[in-house]
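Before anything else, study the sequence and fold tokens given here and see whether the fold suits the sequence. Record follows:
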Amino acid sequence: DRMRGGTPGVGIGRRAWRSFELALAFVPLAFGLSGCAGPAVAKEEAPPPSAPERPTPKTWHASSYVRGALGLRVIDYWSRGPDMRARSLISGHPIVTIVHGGRYIAYDALSRKGVDVARAPGALAGDERRLRPFAFELDELRGEGGEKIEDVKLGRLRAEVWQRTDGAGRRKIWVTADAPQVPVRTQQFDRASGATVETDYSNWTFDLEIPDAFFVPPADVSFERFEYDAFVQWALEGGVSPVPILYPDLLHGGPVD
């Protein structure tokens, strides 16, 4: 998740040929078995020839393990094109987020309450630029001027390390070298607070069969429905969403004034 500061309530501011190998390489990282110094890696001496180019996956699944000041949070993601479903446990409540077409839907699977909000035009435009609607940290880092700093090996997998450091802090990302490039681990250090948040990705799976119904919420959930501008105005006036907006980029498409 990319949880950013801003206005309260708004949330602003397989391929089968590789799935098993990816899972084996990432599981130790995901459960913090690599130690405090980061992933156990060996510098690559002579990279093998690149694998033949394969078609870009149409569907994706991964699990992420986010560690920070608030402890450990596990998130499962599925996507098909720009559509996404994510599930996370927050304070004992399973929070489900569905991004489908022009709607951002989030609900508490325990209380059966949620919000259904029209997405901003900027968020819809962002769908065209992204390979998938989650785990696009490398694209963000490149866009911010980040640079590749190292080639390493994670088990049998070749990986690249990318980094950007500025006055606000440091972002560092490990991604697989071969296509499709997916993140293995991210580290984000905030200089002002001294806090570090680490995210490990595991269980990457490609080209799953995902039906349309997977992006439709249950009929027994009670939703507060908004058009985008009305939702922002409601939040700015003190409205409190029954669930957090965990993926503001997918709702707002950028900062909200």
About this structure: The chain has a mean pLDDT of 84.
